[in-house]
Design goal:
The protein is an alpha+beta fold. The chain is built from eight helices and eleven strands. Helix 3 packs across helix 4, helix 5 crosses helix 8 and helix 6 packs across helix 7. The termini are far apart.
């Protein structure tokens, strides 16, 4: 499928704006682990995922990571082009969690379209509002939810994404998603294993009791 079928407001754009986007568009294929955008000094452009999976995270001064949101097929990342939003800067890193195919829309081209097209401006505002909602949800989780509930929720979310109860994840990777230390995650997973909710192996977590994890998450 082509870019036009992935961009939801394509038919609402004027022909001149369609031509501007198509004329500046770039295709990329990146391997798992590739960093596509690194902080607010980097203006990569808007990223539209064709297939694969990206992760947006922030990095503390101590080097700890925490996932802000993830991007899947047909998702558009705005924060990788934060330079086009003069009054807002976002020190976010975007990394491929899987081999990913995507399109890159240069920030200047999209800014020009957004300034001249009401549908593009409205669409951009909707995405921005959704991303800020995710950030607020994350803050609520970090501030008010205990780590056992957050780990349970993460394991269930990851299982839903992968469509499998066997998760190829290291304790370090889980800690990076949740913004905590590996040792803390290891202790929590060992507790889950002792309670019969998961089974641990090297680089792998297998969910044995989804119902109990869900009950813990929802309490």
């Amino acid at each position: 499928m082509d870019f036009q079928s992935y961009f939801p407001i394509w038919d609402q754009l004027a022909p001149a704006h369609q031509e501007l986007i198509l004329g500046s568009l770039a295709r990329r294929e990146v391997k798992r682990g590739t960093v596509l955008h690194n902080g607010d000094a980097d203006c990569t452009g808007l990223l539209l995922v064709r297939s694969g999976q990206l992760r947006a995270y922030i990095l503390s001064e101590e080097g700890r990571e925490i996932t802000v949101y993830r991007l899947f097929d047909r998702d558009l990342c705005l924060f990788s082009a934060s330079c086009m939003m003069r009054s807002a800067q976002f020190d976010i890193t975007i990394q491929a969690e899987k081999d990913t195919r995507l399109w890159v829309i240069p920030a200047e081209a999209y800014r020009q379209v957004m300034e001249q097209s009401a549908p593009a401006a409205n669409y951009t505002n909707e995405i921005m509002a959704a991303r800020f909602s995710e950030v607020m949800w994350l803050m609520e989780q970090v501030m008010w939810k205990s780590l056992d509930k957050r780990v349970a929720a993460f394991l269930l979310e990851e299982s839903a994404i992968e469509g499998s109860a066997v998760l190829r994840l290291t304790h370090e990777a889980i800690a990076n998603h949740l913004g905590t230390h590996r040792e803390v995650v290891t202790r929590m997973l060992r507790y889950f294993q002792g309670e019969g909710m998961v089974k641990l192996a090297r680089g792998c977590v297998e969910i044995l009791d989804e119902g109990r994890l869900a009950g813990l998450r929802d309490t």
